[in-house]
Each structure stands twice: as structure tokens, then as C-alpha cells.
Design brief:
Number of strands: 11
CATH topology of the largest domain: Spore Coat Polysaccharide Biosynthesis Protein SpsA, Chain A
Structural class: alpha/beta
Number of helices: 9
CATH architecture of the largest domain: Alpha-Beta Complex
Helix content: 25-40%
Low-confidence stretches: none
Oligomer: single chain
Mean pLDDT: 94
Number of domains: 2
Strand content: 15-25%
CATH superfamily of the largest domain: Spore Coat Polysaccharide Biosynthesis Protein SpsA, Chain A
Shape: globular
């Protein structure tokens, strides 16, 4: 899969309900959105751009040497935002794979981003995503920890059957913490954003169920750890601490 065929898009907006303005929050001496763009670029899988409706986000991204594209302010989801950005950045259809990286994952490892491409290269899945085995007992019952229920198709690969906030599946065996990073085939993204919200999506408040209910195939690459998502001031403090440790150890992001 050539790099010119892959586009990494990072949707970002200022109006996050729990932590307004978080894309520009300082983490490790950079705005969070810039840190995520830096890590996406380090993954080395293709062109990287931030899709936003806020001029201040676009300005910060461009000042750091990364690409930004302005999108409408009325998008209901990041998926809709990246689809608009795809049309702006690649109107002639050269891009085959679109990777949606959340803009609030400032500690995500580049190899974690790369892992999302493998299922699309190896199978005919429409969409690929990520998960990690749950190791903390409290996460098994936490509705904020989304679980993916899947059938194993390889040592580090699942075919998704369902996503849920409940503790599932029942019985002995691992539970998988879903990581909300997606790689779409271009046609799959176009189809996905054209579909209305589905019944289970509305019930669980999980957008990816729309794809499963429409019969689309989602494969899951199992990775070692869940990157920290920043939604609160407590998360922000933890991200800053993790990046400080990373900087002191000299680890390559």
C-alpha cells in the first residue's frame, strides 16, 4: 500500500463539552493537536492533515509545519468532518485508505497508528480499528470503556461482531478495550457517512455500530496498550506527566 494512497486525517473542534479548547491545550510544550499530528506523521504511512472548523486550530497546526484544512462547523461527527476534508484534499480519488486519528490522543505511539492498516492490507474488511486486552478489573464493568466483541481470525486479529458499553462477552476469557481509531477504505467511508444513524448506534451511543448494522465488515488489530484519551482536566494532567517522562527518557514518539 503506497503512502500516496493513504491519507491520515485528524478531526478537531474547539467546542468539546468537557474540556473546551482542548486541541490547543499545552502538552509537552506543544498544542495537543500538534502533538497528535507529529505522532501521525512519525507513523510514516501517508499524508497527514488536520480537519477543523476553527481558524485558531488551523493556525496552530500550520505554524508547526503541518497541514490543515477548513471544514464546515455543522458536522455531527468526526467521520463526517474527515469525509468533507477528503473531498477537498483529494478531489480526484487517488487516496484509497483514510485513517481517522482522534485529536485527543497525545500519547499515541506511531506504531499503534500503523497497526490499523494491517487488516485492510490482509483482508477484504471495509473498516479496520484497534483494541487492547483489558487488564484493569474495574474497566470490565465501566460503561465508558467500550468493549469490542469479536471472533478471533489470527493471533492478533478479530473480526468485530459487536461493540458495547456493557461487560461482554460473558464467561471466561479476555475482554477487549476498543480504541477509537479507524482506517476506512474510501468507498466504505463514503457509504458510512451516507447512512442514517442506526437503532443500536443510538441505543449504545457508538457510531461504529452503524457500519455493522449495515452489513459492513470491521476487522480489529489487537495492540499492546490503550493510548490515553484526554477528555477532562485530570486526563490532561496525566498526559502532561506521561509526556514529561517520555521526554526525560529520550523515547522516540
Amino acid at each position: 500500500m503506497a503512502g500516496s494512497e493513504v491519507l491520515v486525517l485528524i478531526p478537531a473542534r474547539m467546542a468539546a463539552s468537557r474540556l473546551p479548547g482542548k486541541p490547543l491545550a499545552d502538552v509537552g510544550g506543544r498544542p495537543m493537536i500538534v502533538e497528535v499530528a507529529r505522532r501521525a506523521a512519525a507513523a510514516g504511512i501517508g499524508r497527514v492533515a488536520v480537519a477543523t472548523d476553527a481558524a485558531e486550530i488551523a493556525d496552530a497546526v500550520r505554524a508547526a509545519g503541518f497541514e490543515a484544512v477548513m471544514t464546515r462547523a455543522d458536522h455531527p461527527s468526526g467521520s463526517d468532518r474527515i469525509f468533507e476534508a477528503l473531498g477537498v484534499l483529494d478531489p480526484h480519488g487517488a487516496v484509497r485508505i483514510v485513517v481517522n486519528v482522534q485529536g485527543d490522543l497525545p500519547t499515541i505511539a506511531p506504531q499503534t497508528i500503523r497497526a490499523a492498516l494491517a487488516p485492510l492490507a490482509e483482508t477484504d474488511a471495509d473498516i479496520a480499528t484497534l483494541a487492547a486486552i483489558i487488564t484493569e478489573p474495574h474497566e470490565r464493568t465501566d460503561p465508558n470503556v467500550v468493549k469490542v466483541v469479536g471472533t478471533p481470525i489470527a493471533a492478533d486479529r478479530l473480526r468485530a461482531l459487536y461493540f458495547t458499553r456493557a461487560t461482554a462477552p460473558y464467561g471466561e476469557g479476555p475482554l477487549y478495550h476498543h480504541i477509537g481509531l479507524y482506517a476506512y477504505r474510501r468507498a466504505a467511508l463514503e457509504r458510512f457517512v451516507s447512512l442514517p444513524p442506526s437503532p443500536l448506534e443510538l441505543r449504545e451511543k457508538l457510531e461504529q455500530l452503524r457500519a455493522l448494522e449495515a452489513g459492513m465488515r470491521i476487522d480489529v488489530a489487537v495492540v499492546d496498550a490503550v493510548p490515553l484519551g484526554v477528555d477532562t482536566t485530570e486526563h490532561l494532567a496525566r498526559a502532561r506527566a506521561l509526556l514529561a517522562v517520555e521526554g526525560q527518557s529520550g523515547e522516540q514518539a
